[in-house]
Amino acid sequence: MSTDNPPSTKENRFSKAVRLVERHWMRVWAVLVILFLYTPIIVIVLFSFEKGSFSGFPWDGFTLEWYQTLLETPSAINATINSLWVALFVTFFGTVLGTLGAIALVRHNFRLKQTYRMLVIAPMTIPGLILGVALLMMFNYLEISRSLRTVIIGQLVFVVPFVLVTVSSRLAGFDPTLEEAARDLGASKWTTYRRVTLPLLAPGIISGALFAFTLSFDDFLIAFFTSGVENTLPVYIFSTIQRSQSPVINAISTVALVISMLVIAVSLYFRN
């Protein structure tokens, strides 16, 4: 006597399986992508609190010792301060240059405008390795000693286009009739810009500035090729991990991660 299920039963099970996949595949895909993206970050944060000297499972216990060691390591503190200074200068100059460039692109018509747009945005697409080598050769050719100043100049090359694109998107949705209404009411050009244009553009400018800060603070390739004896934090982490895999590196990386995530969160808040 045969024990096989009737064909109609098999078809029903197949149809149910298909409907189940169709109903839940996006959730499964989202969970897998989140795990893929954030597992390395979660691991390094967890190991920054591990008591053992070697990062691995099982855990030897919870400790804040590596953060205390970090605070007692002058070279790590100096590298963090260098990164913050560089990021602040790059953010300021990158925001000013990027905002002015965006106003020129969106508000004015001139010959070769599309060529200008392409040339200004192009550094965004150049690989960091190529850009770093090119900057290194340029500084050597011009006989400019590498320092934090050369890091600032190098990072401005790829940060300004990001600010320009961010502010341009805000300017594209700007209603020019608001400025015309202010002028009809007697406001001067400068007053209109200060009381109407700038406040409306502020979210885009602030978002671009915070984006510039994050790019600069996390940059490794440009800083690696253009820094001198004074290292930024990413370069310090790289040079330290070449010598040893101290758990202090996990603590440094976690601190840098927290700073970057906070800046990104603020940037998204102003963008929305």
Automatic annotation (TrEMBL):
Instruction: Write the record's keywords in alphabetical order, separated by commas.
Output: Cell membrane, Membrane, Transmembrane, Transmembrane helix, Transport
Q: Which Pfam families does the record match to this protein?
A: BPD_transp_1
- Gene Ontology cellular component annotations, sorted alphabetically: plasma membrane
Does the keyword section mention Nucleotide-binding? no
Membrane-spanning residues: 28-49, 84-106, 118-139, 151-172, 193-214, 248-270
ABC transmembrane type-1 domain residues? 80-270
Subcellular location(s) per record:
Cell membrane
Concerning Gene3D superfamilies, the annotation shows:
MetI-like
Matching entries from InterPro entries are given as: Bact_Polyamine_Transport, MetI-like, MetI-like_sf
Entry keyword Transmembrane helix: yes
SUPFAM superfamilies recorded for this chain? MetI-like
Q: Topology versus the membrane, per the UniProt entry?
A: Multi-pass membrane protein
Q: Which family does it belong to?
A: Belongs to the binding-protein-dependent transport system permease family. CysTW subfamily.
Under which name does UniProt file this protein?
A: ABC transporter permease
- The organism named in the record is Natribaculum luteum
